[in-house]
TrEMBL record:
The keyword Secreted does not apply. The keyword Methyltransferase does not apply. GO terms for molecular function: isomerase activity. It comes from Desulfosporosinus acididurans. It is an enzyme of class 5 (isomerase). This is UDP-2,3-diacetamido-2,3-dideoxy-D-glucuronate 2-epimerase. CDD domains: GTB_UDP-GlcNAc_2-Epimerase (cd03786).
Length: 355
């Protein structure tokens, strides 16, 4: 079957690593890269490190306001779809690239497969929530990473075409963990195991709002220990715009490649993040996590006590870190995000759709 995959942002490249490999065993897949992320460390590094097939189309849309960015992607994806006439369009997650790919396909009556369907924060202020709700309602196949995602879809009347597959990001980690462990971090990052914390911050609600960003930085200053912060370019820019400087215990570095990132995660005492992917990876490495958001789509790790939601309050973030340091960790539950075979299951479900 001919499948066009539309992607454009860092976590989507990582998700495509295992899934493109699985799809290409039996399908003719072509990748369309919208250009939403374009710095070497936000895009090319993942294609090179993870052996993701080179995109057939690069749309070069770049950074813009939501409407302009999504609109330009929509126009350009439509041109590709008219030319390629695929049987399916596949999209990942909840970025503007996801919505543009889904909308372009829906208008041309091409069925859509949505990977990472059914996630909800129930916060419509988040651009991602709008993107995922709309994409789910346009999709014919909805690949859910968790039981909760299946339940969320059912609450919206979506039950047809819903398949619980596990999480392709977990597949990526299971697949590449050994390769990462065989590597050595750069000399500037070689800290003893569990002697540092790792942090990432990039969510719009935390970076666009100076009070929230200041709260997070203030929390970093209150926490005892070295914090490594591979900084998303969005946050770098907004720290400057809001004139916020980082405390001395924060080691600021450029965004890193996936293999370096997951090694940093593995060696961390604790992870502080507002990323979706990093929350799950923390759990898979058995590293406790503080999620600096008011809600999360990945509720499973919070429910079993390995992840704490703090919002952007300095006091709550610092208290969550202290809590982990003072108390033993709760029991670990295996396979919360599947058994590493989500990509194979997605490829097989698409195979069943052959006309
Ligand atoms: C996007 C997604 C978010 C996802 C994140 C993953 C949307 C609405 N948001 O957020 O869901 O979690 O990607 O990382 O789709 N920039 C660069 N170089 C780059 C890319 C971005 O400098 O290669 C800077 C630009 O200043 C840009 C800003 O980052 O304006 C934001 O980029 P954008 O892609 O709009 O949103 P993200 O915050 O990356
Ligand atoms: N990641 C990375 N380098 C970094 C920061 C994150 O490779 O400097 C990886 C991380 O391991 C995870 C993914 O990027 O696999 C998460 O992407 P991000 O946090 O940008 O987006 P989200 O998951 O929140 O949508």
């Amino acid at each position: 079957m001919k499948i066009i995959t539309v992607l454009g942002a860092r976590p989507q490249f990582i998700k495509a690593a295992p899934l493109s490999a699985a799809l290409r065993k039996n399908h003719d897949e072509k990748i369309v890269h919208t250009g939403q992320h374009y710095d070497y460390q936000m895009s090319d590094v993942f294609f090179e490190e993870l052996g993701i097939p080179k995109p057939e189309y690069f749309l070069g849309v770049g950074s813009k306001q939501h409407g302009a960015q999504t609109g330009e992607m929509l126009t350009k994806v439509e041109e590709v779809l008219l030319k390629e006439k695929p049987d399916w369009v596949l999209v990942y997650g909840d970025t503007n690239s996801t919505l543009a790919g889904a909308l372009a396909a829906a208008k041309l009556h091409i069925p859509i497969a949505h990977v990472e369907a059914g996630l909800r924060s129930y916060n419509r202020q988040m651009p991602e929530e709008i993107n995922r709700v709309l994409t789910d309602h346009l999709s014919a196949l909805l690949f859910c990473p968790t039981d909760r995602a299946v339940e969320n879809l059912a609450l919206e009347g979506l039950t047809e075409g819903v398949v619980r597959t596990g999480d392709v990001m977990a597949d990526a980690l299971y697949y590449h963990a050994r390769r990462a462990e065989d590597r050595q971090l750069g000399e500037n990052l070689r800290y003893p195991e569990k002697s540092y914390l790792l942090a990432t911050v990039h969510r719009a609600e935390n970076t666009d709002n100076p009070e929230r960003l200041q709260g997070i930085v203030e929390a970093f200053a209150r926490i005892k220990g070295q914090i490594i912060l591979p900084l998303h370019p969005r946050t770098k820019k907004l720290l400057q715009d809001h004139n916020i400087s980082l405390p001395e215990n924060v080691k600021l570095i450029e965004p890193v490649g996936y293999l370096e990132m997951v090694l940093l995660e593995k060696g961390a005492e604790l992870i502080l993040t507002d990323s979706g992917g990093v929350q799950k990876e923390a759990y898979l490495w058995r590293v406790p996590c503080v999620t600096m958001r008011d809600e999360t789509e990945w509720v499973e790790t919070v429910q079993i006590g390995w992840n704490t939601l703090t919002g952007a309050s300095a006091a709550k973030i610092a208290a969550a870190v202290a809590g982990y340091r003072q108390n033993p960790l709760p029991p670990y539950q295996e396979n919360l995000y599947g058994n590493g075979r989500a990509s194979e299951e997605i490829a097989a479900a698409l195979e069943k759709q052959r006309r």
